[in-house]
Design brief:
about 180 residues; mainly alpha; 7 helices; about 0% strand; flat
């Protein structure tokens, strides 16, 4: 290393032998912080720790299939619990205050089961159950929105004319204050 420093200090090109042997893509000198970062990442990450996903094996596919079947069973239990709670409500399923608890419990149960089995949420089974509950329990619920009408004509005119009259007054006030501040300066 001392001979390399001496060669670089003498004004000659640094590491001429190494530069000639590097591929063209690596001929540009890397800044030291970037080089250090690349070295640290290479030293810290191993193939298992990297972001690359391992290739599926027959055993892993079988295990994943069993997990999906177990999730389906748990999702069915979530559905049955939800259905029991909804059947206890007196057919007033469009009132959110009455059905929010069972609906939230269903969603929480499906999310928790998916997390336990290492599956994402939403997933096809959870979506199927949620669509099914909307078809069964909420198909007759419509969005009731109040119809708005125009305000009376005198109120409408006052709301239009007030800003129109106020704008020239404010412009005059700004111009007057700016002339006053120029006179003081």
């Amino acid at each position: 290393m001392a001979s390399l420093r001496a060669q670089g200090a003498a004004g000659g090109p640094r590491l001429p032998a190494l530069r000639a042997q590097r591929p063209a893509a690596l001929r540009l000198p890397l800044p030291p912080p970037l080089l250090l970062l690349l070295l640290l990442l290479g030293a810290v990450l191993s193939p298992l720790d990297s972001l690359a996903q391992p290739l599926p094996t027959p055993d892993s596919l079988l295990l994943e299939g069993q997990m999906v079947e177990n999730y389906e069973t748990n999702a069915f239990h979530c559905w049955m619990d939800y259905k029991t709670l909804m059947d206890s409500i007196e057919k007033d399923w469009c009132d959110w205050t009455k059905i929010s608890r069972p609906y939230s419990d269903l969603q929480h149960c499906l999310e928790y089961s998916a997390e336990v089995f290492g599956l994402g949420f939403p997933n096809p089974w959870a979506e199927k159950i949620i669509f099914e509950t909307h078809l069964i329990h909420f198909s007759n619920c419509s969005m009731m929105q109040p119809t708005f009408s125009d305000p009376p004509e005198d109120v409408l005119l006052a709301m239009i004319i007030a800003p129109i009259c106020l704008i020239p007054f404010l412009v005059t006030l700004v111009v007057w204050r700016s002339k006053d501040s120029e006179a003081q300066a």
